[in-house]
Amino acid sequence: MLRAAASAAAAGALLSGCDPHRDEDRGPARATGPSPSPVGREPHRPAHAARPPTRVPGLPVQIENGPREAHAVALTFHGRGDPKLATALLGEAERAGARVTVLVVGDWLDAQPQMARRILDGGHELGNHTLHHRDICALPAADAYAEITGCADRLRRLTGTIGSWFRPSQTRRATDLVTQLARKAGYPHVLSYDVDSLDANDPGAPAVRRTVLEAVRPGSVVSLHLGHAGTVAALPPILDGLRRRGLRAVTTTELVT
């Protein structure tokens, strides 16, 4: 169940979906300062190091899912939005023993630099979702490369690495050009997904849960978003549904290696 403080945060949440028609995807997130835990004082967490880019010989450059014989899935989050909702969502994952992959937007890290360490300290994984969340496949090569490297630079400054994965913005799959630019920037693979939760449209927690659990399979990579109260509320029943099927939520690197 969504914690009371997370519900209160919902009214002022910045929506963070990847729909190219949403204004929230084009403007930088507004800085609100460090945010406390939505359920009181944060427990002590050990420091976790950021992973370098993941390289898996034998896997395609563009990855949509992990091995189907796995007893796990990867829940991946497009990283932008109200940091209180992001913190609430991470807390829900951690209470269930789940680990997730967050693909952050670079200008969100400019506004919320503390979130990089919060994600890592929860045992989660960080990746790159471009600098400004523009329609990267429609950009000239120089501009697209700047979007990739701009976010990579911020991740390196905050964590010491450029992140484990690159996911293109406003598209499910990268073009050949964007894939080449990502590799030039240091990412051996581009991370796509095979399950779209459609949570960026704010259909409500029951619809998000139903969409994910009806489509998910062993080895799935699921696309979700930070910054949406319905996603925070949907996460516990999603994790419970996965558990009932014998599936664990792990980072993408854990899923494919």
TrEMBL record:
Gene3D superfamilies from the UniProt entry: Glycoside hydrolase/deacetylase
Region annotated Disordered, chain positions: 12-61
Domain NodB homology: 71-250
InterPro entries to which the protein is assigned, alphabetical: Glyco_hydro/deAcase_b/a-brl, NODB_dom, Polysacc_deacetylase_ArnD
Biased composition, class Basic and acidic residues, residue ranges: 19-28
Pfam families named in the record: Polysacc_deac_1
PANTHER family in the cross-refs: GLYCOSYL TRANSFERASE-RELATED
Protein name from the UniProt record: Polysaccharide deacetylase family protein
Organism: Streptomyces endophytica
Lineage per the UniProt record: Bacteria, Bacillati, Actinomycetota, Actinomycetes, Kitasatosporales
